């Protein structure tokens, strides 16, 4: 009888152990690439630029690959060397990937800058500008692919958005004409196109613009991809009060069919330093769009939430310029954001940042604090959360910079210390308390949502998920969400 009882207790112990595995601890995992790419920065190294020299990206799953198209901005560009090595600079960079981690540099989309765009810009900018192609946007249409792009002169409204078509995401491309063109007499600026197709009516709407007058939306003819009314420049959808100084650009429009909402992502401030992403939403593709507090984006009030901004975790020099995003979905319906990240302290090298996107309980998008490396999804228990964490409270820039055309002046390319969103250590103790008597925490294991009461402030519905700790080269637990003021809250468990 005693032997039987002993065997039963042992069996129960094995059963309980199987049902309650040891708490998760971060697992060592090397990064898939180095952030400093100076070793492969010469013009002849372009086939090694899979995640390097990425600026203003647009990404979509097209056939067997995810394709990414971006402005041809290159750190250490040397046109003489490029000419000697027959490297065709200036014509939209193209990449592809099957797993969103390993990227192959395919080449350049066009053999030249379309002459009609060059002529328009230079004839209205004193012979200047039109030296490369900016901010492409890809969208499928039937059995064709449409690639929108812009050509401009820096600091001017002399700009041209054109469109080309191809039967393949890799071209060759046939030019189909002008979508919008502007000059110094225009209110708006024809750059940074992004398109939404109305889920009910099938109408196409192109969002575009910059700090010159704000962002605009114009209806396109689905059959041609060009405006329904020739010469139409559309209606205002977003602006800032001091638009000549406070930069606003890079609209990216997506539709979430589950939430039945259109989301307009926009970029604030100078692209090399305090560039940051914000977002509004609407039940119509053409707007109006409202923010976290119900304020219209075409009002002159700065809008929230703030999703990304310059940040620095421990063991890394940090990232500036974290904006001008593209947002897309995987075959499995997972949302992702791509944008440039400029490696500090000099903020010149442009790395690909690709982050998972989640939607909060009240329908706002938030992004992972870390770049995506294909981590295996898993659920976490309360025991898994106990440990040491780095927390970042993402804030908007506070330092008043001298700007020209919405961008920094030469010599101001490094961030000041007060402009950084830096991490702070926080201990989540097993008893549900925060270290240092800072408050408490609680995990809903069913919903994988974390609630923090931090120094009297309640921050709830923080989304918990598995991800990669880039700075410490390990797989770990991450969380992301928003506080009551519409600012992102990021966390990663470090041990």
**What is the tally of beta strands?**
34
CA-atom Rg in angstroms: 24 Å
Form type: globular
> Quaternary arrangement of the chains shown?
single chain
Quote the beta fraction: 35-45%
The end-to-end span amounts to 46 Å
Q: Round the mean pLDDT to the nearest integer and report it.
A: 93
| Low-pLDDT windows of residues | 1-19
Give a verbal description of the structure.
- With 495 residues, the protein is mainly beta.
- Strands 1, 24, 28, 29, 30, 31, 32, 33 and 34 form a 9-stranded antiparallel beta sheet that branches.
- Strand 10 and strand 11 form a beta hairpin.
- The longest helix is centred in the N-terminal third of the chain and has 18 residues.
- The chain is globular and about 70 Å long.
- The chain starts with a helix and ends with a strand.
- The N terminus is likely disordered.
Task: Describe the secondary structure blueprint for this structure.
Layout: H1 2-19, E1 27-28, E2 58-62, E3 65-70, H2 79-84, E4 93-97, E5 104-108, H3 115-123, E6 134-141, E7 144-152, E8 159-166, E9 174-182, E10 194-197, E11 204-210, E12 214-220, E13 235-238, E14 248-256, E15 261-268, E16 276-282, E17 306-308, E18 311-312, E19 319-320, E20 326-329, E21 335-343, E22 350-359, E23 365-367, H4 382-385, E24 387-393, E25 403-404, E26 407-408, E27 421-422, E28 424-428, E29 433-434, E30 439-444, E31 449-454, E32 457-469, E33 474-482, E34 488-493
Parallel strand pairs: 18-27
Antiparallel strand pairs: 1-33, 2-3, 3-4, 4-5, 6-7, 7-8, 8-9, 10-11, 11-12, 12-13, 14-15, 15-16, 16-17, 19-21, 20-21, 21-22, 22-23, 24-28, 24-34, 25-26, 29-30, 30-31, 31-32, 32-33, 33-34
């Amino acid at each position: 009888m005693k032997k039987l009882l002993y065997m039963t207790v042992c069996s129960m112990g094995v059963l309980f152990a199987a049902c309650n595995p040891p708490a998760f601890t971060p697992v060592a995992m090397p990064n898939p690439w180095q952030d400093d790419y100076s070793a492969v920065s010469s013009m002849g190294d372009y086939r090694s630029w899979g995640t390097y020299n990425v600026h203003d990206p647009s990404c979509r799953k097209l056939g067997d690959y995810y394709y990414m198209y971006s402005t041809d901005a290159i750190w250490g560009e040397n046109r003489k060397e490029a000419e000697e090595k027959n490297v065709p600079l200036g014509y939209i960079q193209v990449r592809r990937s099957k797993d969103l981690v390993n990227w192959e540099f395919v080449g350049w989309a066009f053999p030249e800058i379309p002459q009609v765009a060059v002529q328009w810009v230079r004839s209205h900018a004193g012979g200047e500008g039109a030296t490369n192609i900016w901010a492409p946007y890809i969208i499928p249409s039937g059995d064709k692919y449409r690639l929108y792009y812009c050509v401009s002169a820096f600091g001017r409204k002399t700009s041209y958005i054109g469109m080309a078509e191809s039967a393949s995401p890799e071209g060759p491309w046939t030019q189909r004409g002008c979508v919008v063109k502007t000059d110094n007499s225009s209110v708006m600026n024809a750059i940074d196109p992004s398109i939404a197709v109305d889920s009910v009516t099938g109408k196409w709407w192109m969002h575009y613009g910059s700090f010159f007058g704000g962002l605009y939306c114009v209806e396109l003819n689905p059959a041609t991809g060009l405006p329904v009314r020739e010469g139409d420049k559309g209606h205002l959808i977003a602006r800032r009060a001091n638009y000549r100084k406070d930069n606003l650009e890079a609209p990216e429009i997506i539709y979430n069919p589950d939430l039945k909402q259109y989301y307009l992502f926009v970029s604030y401030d100078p692209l090399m330093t305090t560039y940051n992403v914000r977002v509004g939403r609407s039940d119509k593709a053409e707007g109006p769009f409202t923010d976290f507090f119900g304020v219209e984006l075409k009002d002159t009030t700065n809008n929230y939430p703030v999703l990304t901004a310059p940040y620095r975790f421990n063991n890394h020099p940090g990232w500036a310029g974290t904006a001008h995003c593209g947002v897309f979905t995987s075959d499995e319906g997972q949302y992702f954001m791509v944008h440039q990240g400029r490696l500090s302290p000099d903020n010149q090298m442009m790395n690909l940042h690709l982050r998972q996107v989640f939607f909060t309980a009240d329908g706002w998008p938030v992004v992972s604090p870390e770049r995506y490396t294909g981590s295996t999804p898993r659920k976490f228990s309360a025991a898994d959360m106990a440990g040491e964490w780095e927390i970042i409270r993402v804030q908007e820039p506070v330092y008043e910079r001298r700007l020209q055309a919405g961008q920094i002046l030469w010599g101001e390319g490094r961030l000041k210390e007060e402009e950084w969103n830096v991490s702070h250590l926080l201990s989540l103790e097993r008893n549900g308390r925060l270290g240092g008597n800072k408050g408490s925490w609680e995990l809903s294991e069913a919903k994988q949502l974390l609630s923090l009461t931090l120094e009297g402030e309640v921050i709830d519905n923080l989304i918990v998920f598995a991800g990669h700790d880039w700075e410490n080269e390990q797989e770990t637990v991450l969380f992301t969400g928003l506080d009551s003021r519409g600012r992102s809250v990021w966390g990663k468990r470090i041990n």
